[in-house]
Specification:
By secondary structure, the chain is of the alpha+beta class. About 15% of the residues lie in helices and about 45% in strands. The protein has a six-stranded antiparallel beta sheet.
Length: about 130
């Protein structure tokens, strides 16, 4: 299956899709110095969240999918150089609304769990906007 959404996204910053199937995706994020928040080598959580969001979008895999809301828990830190693996699965679907569960691990440790509420729109979110 091929990706139908977020085709221009930087895979260097948001991860590389390695599996894509109906209602699920797996993304791998190789952390880099560009993601470091401090001298200890802590990766800023925004990059892990961005990869989780990307995995959720790919699990829905519609060109007009957007994120409506997200509830995430950061459970462990990520250090520069670690590889983060993210798995996303679509759960409940009600009309345009898709609930997607995402789990991220690094070196076998769960670093993030989240629930993403995604919406599939009739047209691109920017169509008709200035």
């Amino acid at each position: 299956m091929e990706a139908s959404t977020h085709l221009e996204l930087s895979r260097r910053l948001c991860g590389e899709p390695v599996e894509l199937d109906v209602g699920r995706s797996r993304v791998v994020l190789e952390t880099s110095d560009a993601m470091v928040a401090d001298s200890a080598g802590l990766v800023h959580g925004g990059f892990v969240f961005g990869a989780a969001d990307y995995a959720a979008m790919l699990a829905v895999n519609d060109p007009n999918v957007v994120l409506g809301s997200a509830g995430v828990k950061f459970l462990a830190p990520v250090r520069v150089g670690q590889v983060v693996e993210l798995e996303a699965r679509v759960g409940a679907v009600e009309g345009r609304r898709h609930e997607v569960a995402v789990e991220a691990t690094a070196d076998g440790v769960v670093v993030l769990r989240g629930e993403f509420t995604c919406f599939v729109l009739d047209r691109h979110v920017l169509v008709g906007r200035p």
